[in-house]
């Protein structure tokens, strides 16, 4: 029973071939392809409006030099948002519950922001490791602490996204299992459990959207520090 709760987080495979790549590419098929017309249909209009809103929110903390990252950050936001929401459907696999995938997204992007700062403004980037006015005896300790906090950023990004989505999926499965088990014994309690499950599902939809936004927003803030 304990193992079955975590089976949903195992990578699906067909004939021994992992299907993670397919689960990553499939959400892109749900978006309509652009046409030659200014306005194709309502779905395309809503899609363009959402993309404009997401891009506007992500570019607020960035200056003009950071606007070159708009395409990559918006694409990452849309990908994470789509994968997180589709992962809440029954009998689906959520790739963002895998720490390896989240770290594969977080580490290269964090490293890119860091290298951008070291290339453009090396003095300002290194100055973040030592706050101004620090007493001389505390300089080695503060440099060590700031360096550790800088290096732990990609780990925090990946673990935050993985932990929040994994906890939500486990809660949904535990409560749904309890509702099914209580149905023949205590129907009234089972109905109450189903109501709690519906509320939890709404909460998890919000969590899926918020975590995708927080992941990309923190990357944009790291970028702002280095440009």
UniProtKB/TrEMBL annotation:
Reaction catalysis annotation: H(+)(in) = H(+)(out)
Main location as per UniProt: mitochondrion
Subunit structure: Component of the ATP synthase complex composed at least of ATP5F1A/subunit alpha, ATP5F1B/subunit beta, ATP5MC1/subunit c (homooctomer), MT-ATP6/subunit a, MT-ATP8/subunit 8, ATP5ME/subunit e, ATP5MF/subunit f, ATP5MG/subunit g, ATP5MK/subunit k, ATP5MJ/subunit j, ATP5F1C/subunit gamma, ATP5F1D/subunit delta, ATP5F1E/subunit epsilon, ATP5PF/subunit F6, ATP5PB/subunit b, ATP5PD/subunit d, ATP5PO/subunit OSCP.
Topology with respect to the bilayer: Multi-pass membrane protein
Keyword terms, alphabetized: ATP synthesis, CF(0), Hydrogen ion transport, Ion transport, Membrane, Mitochondrion, Mitochondrion inner membrane, Transmembrane, Transmembrane helix, Transport
PROSITE patterns associated with the record: ATPASE_A
Signal peptide per UniProt: none
Pfam families noted in UniProt: ATP-synt_A
Organism: Aix galericulata
Full protein name: ATP synthase subunit a
Family membership noted in the UniProt record: Belongs to the ATPase A chain family.
A cellular component term, taken from the record's GO annotations: proton-transporting ATP synthase complex
Ranges that cross the membrane: 12-31, 69-89, 101-118, 138-159, 171-199, 205-223
One GO MF term attached to the UniProt entry: proton-transporting ATP synthase activity, rotational mechanism
């Amino acid at each position: 029973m304990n193992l079955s709760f975590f089976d949903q987080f195992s990578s699906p495979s067909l004939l021994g071939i992992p299907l993670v790549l397919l689960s990553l590419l499939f959400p892109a098929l749900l978006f309509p392809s652009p046409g030659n017309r200014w306005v194709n249909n309502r779905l395309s209009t809503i899609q363009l409006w959402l993309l404009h809103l997401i891009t506007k929110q992500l570019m607020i903390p960035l200056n003009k030099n950071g606007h070159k990252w708009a395409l990559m950050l918006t694409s990452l936001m849309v990908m994470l948002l789509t994968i997180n929401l589709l992962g809440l459907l029954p009998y689906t696999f959520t790739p963002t519950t895998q720490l390896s995938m989240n770290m594969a997204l977080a580490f290269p992007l964090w490293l890119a922001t860091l290298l951008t700062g070291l290339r453009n403004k090396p003095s300002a980037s290194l100055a973040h490791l030592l706050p101004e006015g620090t007493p001389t005896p505390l300089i080695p300790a503060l440099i060590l602490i700031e360096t550790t906090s800088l290096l732990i950023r990609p780990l925090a990004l990946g673990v935050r996204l993985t932990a929040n989505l994994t906890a939500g999926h486990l809660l949904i499965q535990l409560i749904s299992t309890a509702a099914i088990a209580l149905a023949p014994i205590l129907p009234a309690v089972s109905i109450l459990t189903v109501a709690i499950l519906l509320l939890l599902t709404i909460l998890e939809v919000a969590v899926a959207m918020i975590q995708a936004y927080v992941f990309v927003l923190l990357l944009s803030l790291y970028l702002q520090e280095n440009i």
